[in-house]
């Protein structure tokens, strides 16, 4: 599902056709896409002053289409209230008989969250919602097993700080509309715990935005898609934008592919978290309104104060040492895009992905500029291209003197760590997708290994790491990524750092939390379930995860971490009772997202397992 942020994932090595929840949720689709269809379709508008930027952008998009095997892509660039570049690339079918045009629609995944935040800010302006009011003030029926749920505020939902588990999976993506998703998510929260106290940290969370749909319905009487249509899309003239409520005409959208075969329309049932279907040109109308402080053609859409609040940093004071490069807003991944912030330019940015699409949306409010790129491949990485276009446009318009120099990647001098300090770093580090093992051959060097589900074993992540004078651990053999360990609130975290694609700044992300020894051995009911395979039973026949091969998950215990349940080759859980196992990691930003709580139910003397909305039957 939608991804955040737009930095490279430093751990996951997903399968081409994931056979489990871990695989498809990590990848948000399949990476085996159709071959490149060269050339561009539709129209293009160029400003004479931005010809260099546009030429660079075209080259990068075409190269990305080839490397990701993407059939179609689309881009728009706004400067001084005018779209100076709008162009579509590729075609909509395998035979290249239907070229993509600037009017071709794409699902933009989590870019939809910007609309969700805007919808709430409109309601704040109308005095129907308060950002810091508890969610239960609007949804009195909302409940969870953890008493702290009463402390979740609307702001927490919009800033990923709610503590909700992550992503409810049941019937989220399908080839046909499946109504009722948001109501089902709200009801399902009554049977799970929080993964952290509300407001304690910001961990990417789709479920929080799904609850926004329920709040909009409660205070307006309108469904979320209807309210966004009337309050935002219609006033802005975004005629080619909306939610996947019914089939679009053939040829009006760019379809995704499985094994080189174009598929039908992708329907995303989480409208607020990832359901917007739009064009880059339409998104420039939204961007222009934000740049103008909430006005469009002289009409006030949302207050200037509300636009500014969306762009205000929300995660200050939440594990600041672990996420120094990411300063999120309301709906925005970055209220200060790190690459543009590094050159002194304010930018708000949001990335998004679905099973078949990847997108990036960036607004530079003070520079009067915005860019949107989207394409129909989950493996497409539009963020670095959007950043590069923005930097070059700033230079061509005289707002940036020169492109920034690359950071130095020369290894600093060696430092010495005590043997006891190295010993403290070793062990297993948990996250949402692939645990990491830290070992040392000599109590000076550290080697990192990541769990590989396909191999059913540990795979080298980085070996030969040694402490350097800058406080990071570098490997001479694998110098691209550096690592560091930090303590926060009694937990030890593993952080990774890389030079971002643009090369002029570092990106640091926490990638795992050290797992303490289990409180004791697994009890008999859970021991009896070890080394079992569970088959997914409750997805609709039109489910996209079923179409790409999701169907089975495994429950086991890793020898390196006894006493923990290892679910779906990805997450560690601890039993809470004979029939419930709970979440164990609290990692900010992205590595702690999409956690599950396992609940075993017995029907006719047969056990069924519930996990994040999916129901499994034990394989005989």
UniProtKB/TrEMBL annotation:
Q: What domain of life?
A: Bacteria
Q: What is this protein called?
A: Serine hydrolase domain-containing protein
Membrane-spanning segments: none
Q: Which residues form the Beta-lactamase-related domain?
A: 59-380
Q: What is its EC number?
A: 3.-.-.-
Q: Which UniProt keywords apply?
A: Hydrolase
User: Taxonomically, what lineage is the organism?
Assistant: Bacteria, Pseudomonadati, Pseudomonadota, Betaproteobacteria, Burkholderiales
> Per its UniProt record, what PANTHER family does this chain match?
BETA-LACTAMASE-RELATED, BETA-LACTAMASE-RELATED DOMAIN-CONTAINING PROTEIN
